[in-house]
Specification:
globular, seven-stranded parallel β-sheet, alpha/beta, 15% strand
Length: 349
Amino acid sequence: MKNYKDIEKHLSENQYTWLITGVAGFIGSNLLERLLRLNQKVVGLDDFSTGHQKNIDTAIKDASNFSNFEVKKNFKFVEGDISNINHCLNASRGVDFILHHAALGSVPRSIKDPLKTNIVNINGFLNILESTRKLGIKSLVYAASSSTYGDHKALPKREENIGSPLSPYAVTKLVNELYADVYAKVYDIKTIGLRYFNIFGKRQDPKGSYAAVIPKWIDAIINGEDVYINGDGSTSRDFCYIENVIRINLIAALTTNSLAYNNVFNVALGDRTSLSELHSIILKKIAAKLGKCSISNLKFRDFRTGDVMHSQADIEKLKNLLNFKPTYHIDLGLEETIDWYVDNKEYFK
């Protein structure tokens, strides 16, 4: 299969069973929606520690709107905790592919509670690896993180060059990669890690202390609230729209390129946007959407412990081994994301 269109064609003709861990979360629910639209069977595992039932319900509803078949019958939900091996094994039985996205995210959260972060992100991942091994899963695609680059300052970030982790969260994500490598070599399972760089899109929760910057700012501007920047605004990130993430997950799971197995890949645009630039873009797009000038009181505060100043990915490995180049850039991604948040103002109330 050469590209994403080939993947969609293949899936329209072949029905598999997929396990999505963290299915009630932002990325998990978007993956659920796409797989159901493609008439795939999906098992979803979540304990609702950070996800929402509403995300699952909305994903099923949205998938139904694009399909001429009853998508709900293809979905089975298992309420469970990935740090419990029996929950993982039970959810994985009869599954062809695993898309592992359950985790306790956020650098600040991990600094506040490193023990819980370790239990969920490391023990939980080991349980998913064990389930993959014991049950003969075809392949495991897992969410890695750009935080793994730590204090390595060179840009763009290349997969083989990492520094020392700057947070407990980053440590857990690095350990995930090490465990995946060992399991692939010792037990001959197929794993692919996706190092995400600042993913954004619909259904990303803007509320709470650990909300990501894009949904948090969009929500604040729509509601006329203050916007806070950590630092002086020059901090930059490689923001990547959710559609790119959906596509690369399916490509990675179904790839037949043996060189891609037991590998990690940057998932990003290969570009970077400063927080000041991001604020300006979001402000203009919301004003255009609402048909009036949006006002945002911008306030600066201290840089957060554990964060890095700049982040930008090298995506050549992604292009070469998985034949994928992101097609949704930040401008179009922000337009679609803002449209969704404006049209769904009450979603996270």
